[in-house]
Every structure is written in C-alpha cells, then in structure tokens.
C-alpha cells in the first residue's frame, strides 16, 4: 500500500511512522508513506499557501494552486491504479463521512491512496469540487489540521494489510471488525493483588473459552455501545444470551 500525503507540516509524520509496527511494515515494503510538502509547490517569493477568504470574515483559506500542483505533479492528472480504478484522493476534514472500521477495510483494498491534510479555516472550494474524490472526518470535533487524522487513517488501514501484524489473525477479532467490542484479555500472573484471571481461560477447553469470549463481547457491547448491536449479524445463541441480560 502506498500512501501519498500532502501537508504543510511534513515533519509531524516520521516520529510516528518510524517506530514499532508501522516502521517494520515500511522496512518490509508492505507500506510506503510518501510525504509531500505543499509549500514546495507555491512559487511566489514567500511560498504562500493561504489567503484571506472572499466575502470577508476571519481566518485564512488554503489556496488551490499549490494543492493542485502538488497532487498533479506527484500523481499525474486522473491517476489510476493497476486495477484501472482511480487513486482515491481524500481530503481530511470535519465535513467528511465519519471514519469507521468498514471504511478502513474498504480503503485497505486499494494499492495507493492520497491524503490531503487541510489547515487553517479550510480549503478553497475548488479543491473539493475538482481535485478530491472523497472527504473523511475522524469524528465530530475540530482539530487544527488534517495531519493527525491522516496518521489515524494510515495506522488503521496499514494494520489490515496482510503481514503487517505479527499474528495473521490479529485484526480479525478486533473491536469493531466483527461488529462487536472485543472481549477482555488477561495475561500472567494468574493472580494479581488478589484479582484472579477467570477460571474458564485457564481451563484449556477451547469451545468453552470461545463461548465465554463471545458472551463477554456481547455483554460489553450491550453495556457500552448498544447502538452497535443493531447493525451486527447475531446468531440465535447470541440473541438468547442478550435477551437474558435484558436486550430487547
Ligand atoms: N481536520 C480538522 N478536524 C478534523 C476532523 N475531525 N477529521 C478530519 N480532519 C480534520
């Protein structure tokens, strides 16, 4: 997977990408993150990338020329993937569709995606109308720019790419990937300050352990995120269990 990042703050990416799992993924060629400084494509003396809004009002707006030029000179016009599909060109903005595990899964199917990080009050509308193919928000709150959201997308998408996580089943049981929150985890010691690891996890009975984990997932989701149960495929057994704990 190749990520093409367009930003005014290129330095914020490497500290996060050069540690741990994402570092290993890059070293092994599973992901490649190319960070492009939009300012390099501003040609006036002061390399200006923002200007005041037409119509007045506060704040500054990202100018269209450097953003178009940055994207077009790195990707070409109307860039395609080897599948013939267009490269998604995604603007990170609080106005976008809200990022979910489903969207991470959808994006992980691409071989290349471009992420444009907005700054200031916003971007010139012509970027939205004529350059990007999608807009994504990471939640209903406003940050100072799209850099953290871009890192969040890179992280969530990369861990879905085959080989990135050490354990090949690593992403399957995640909270949200099955439409349920994940069950509780325990590791050694079996007893810590008098708090014991549930007996069933030490029993070696895998059918029992699977059932316990499924029920814990259901219980947690019911208690913490009942909205998720509406959208999840539940088996007969799940429904029976949920009914017992008060789910209608
Ligand atoms: N830029 C500023 N706030 C944002 C958000 N919530 N999601 C994506 N990009 C943003």
Ends distance: 43 Å
What gyration radius follows from the Cα positions, in whole Å? 22 Å
Shape: elongated
CATH architecture of the largest domain: 3-Layer(aba) Sandwich
Quaternary state reads single chain
Which ligands are bound?
Answer: adenine
Largest sheet: 5 strands, parallel
Strand content: 15-25%
Give the C-level CATH assignment of the largest domain. Alpha Beta
Low-confidence residue ranges: none
Describe this structure in words.
With 248 residues, the chain is of the alpha/beta class. The chain has 2 domains: 2-158, Alpha/beta knot, CATH 3.40.1280; 178-244, Trp Operon Repressor, Chain A, CATH 1.10.1270.20. Helix content is 33%, strand content 17%. The strands form 3 sheets. A 5-stranded parallel sheet has the order 2-1-6-5-8. It has a 3-stranded mixed sheet with strand order 3-4-7. A two-stranded antiparallel sheet has the order 9-10. Helix 4 crosses helix 6. The longest helix has 19 residues, at 206-224. It starts with a strand and ends with a helix. The mean pLDDT is 96.
């Amino acid at each position: 997977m190749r990520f093409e990042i367009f930003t005014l703050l290129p330095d914020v990416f490497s500290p996060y990408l050069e540690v741990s799992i994402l570092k290993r993924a890059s070293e092994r060629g599973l992901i490649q993150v190319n960070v492009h400084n939009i300012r390099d494509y501003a040609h006036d003396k002061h390399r200006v990338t923002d200007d005041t809004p037409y119509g007045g009002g506060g704040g500054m707006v990202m100018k269209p020329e450097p953003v178009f030029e940055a994207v077009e000179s790195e990707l070409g016009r109307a860039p395609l993937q080897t599948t013939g599909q267009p490269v998604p060109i995604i603007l990170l903005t609080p106005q976008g569709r809200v990022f979910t595990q489903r969207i991470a899964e959808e994006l992980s199917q691409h071989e290349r995606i471009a992420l444009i990080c907005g700054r200031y009050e916003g971007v010139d509308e012509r970027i939205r109308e004529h350059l990007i193919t999608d807009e994504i928000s990471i939640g209903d709150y406003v940050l100072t720019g799209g850099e953290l959201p871009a890192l969040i997308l890179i992280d969530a998408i990369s861990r879905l790419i085959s080989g990135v996580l050490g354990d090949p089943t690593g992403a399957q049981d995640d909270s949200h990937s099955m439409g349920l929150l994940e069950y509780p985890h325990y590791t050694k010691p079996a007893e810590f300050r008098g708090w014991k690891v549930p007996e069933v996890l030490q029993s070696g009975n895998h059918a029992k352990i699977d059932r316990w984990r499924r029920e814990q997932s259901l219980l947690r989701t019911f208690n913490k995120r009942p909205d998720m149960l509406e959208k999840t495929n539940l088996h007969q057994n799940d429904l029976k269990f949920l009914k017992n704990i008060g789910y209608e």
